[in-house]
C-alpha cells in the first residue's frame, strides 16, 4: 500500500508519499481499499498540530473516505469482504488502504457513489445534528448560514430548505453566493462588501435570523449574534476563520437567545442509537435525490498537496475529493 505519511506535524509540505506494509485488521477492525477521500478543514489543522485531536506520530491524515472492505477482524459481524462503506475515523484516508474501526463504518446502499460517500458523513451529519437536534429548526423560520459556500455550509443550506426554512447565505464573494443560490438559498449577503448587520435587518424586516449556523467564527460571530431574533439559537459549529471569538453574554440576555455548541463527533459517541437513526435518514434522503454533496473537483490522490493549496486559497465551492485510480 501507499500513503501520505505525516512524521512531523509542521504543515502540508512535510507530508511524504510512502510505500508501507499493508496491515491486517485486529479485533473490531476492517481493512478498506480506499476509492475516494475528501479534504476537510480539520485535515489541514491536524498536519499543522493545531487540531484538538493529536494522533501518535507518524500518522496518515485523511479523516473521511469511502471504499471496499478487503478483510475483517475478529468480532466484526455486520460487515463482510466486498462491502462498500464510508468511514469518518479521523485519520488514515489519504492512502490506498487503511484500517478502520468497524463500528465507525457506514454500509453504503447500492447506488451510493464512492465519491459522494467520501464527501458525505462529516458535512451532513454535522448540519443535521446542528439544525434539527441542537437548533430545533422549525418550518417557516429563517436560518443564516455563514461560510455558506463551503462543505458544511452547502449541507446546511440543503437541510434547512428540506426543513421548510428560509435560508440567508453569507459568503465572501459574489461567485460563491451565486453557487449558494443554485443550492436553494433564498437570499445572500457578501460580507466582504456588505455590512452584515444592516443587510440582515433589511432581509428580515428587523426580525433577525431565528437560527445562525456558524462554522466560521472570527469577526462575523458577534455582528451575527447581535442581529439574532428573539429566542434565536446561535449554533457554534467551528472556527474556519482561525480566531475564536468572544461574545459578551449580556447579549444573550437582552435577546433571550441561546449560544448552542455543536459537537457531532461526541454526539455520535455518546448517543449512538440517535446518531444511527439520523444517518439512516440522511442516506435515504440521498438515495431519493433530496440531498447531494457538490464536488468542487476530483483530484488524483497523488495531488494531495495541490488539493491542500486549493483549499487554502478559499476558492473551493463544496467539497474536494481525492481518488485512487
UniProtKB/TrEMBL annotation:
SMART domains named among the record's database cross-references: PKS_ER
A GO term, aspect molecular function: oxidoreductase activity
Alphabetized InterPro entries for the sequence: ADH-like_C, ADH-like_N, ER, GroES-like_sf, NAD(P)-bd_dom_sf, Quin_OxRdtase/zeta-crystal_CS, Zn-ADH-like_protein
Location of the Enoyl reductase (ER) domain: 11-322
Protein's recorded name: NADPH:quinone oxidoreductase
Species assigned in the record: Ottowia oryzae
Organism placement in taxonomy: Bacteria, Pseudomonadati, Pseudomonadota, Betaproteobacteria, Burkholderiales
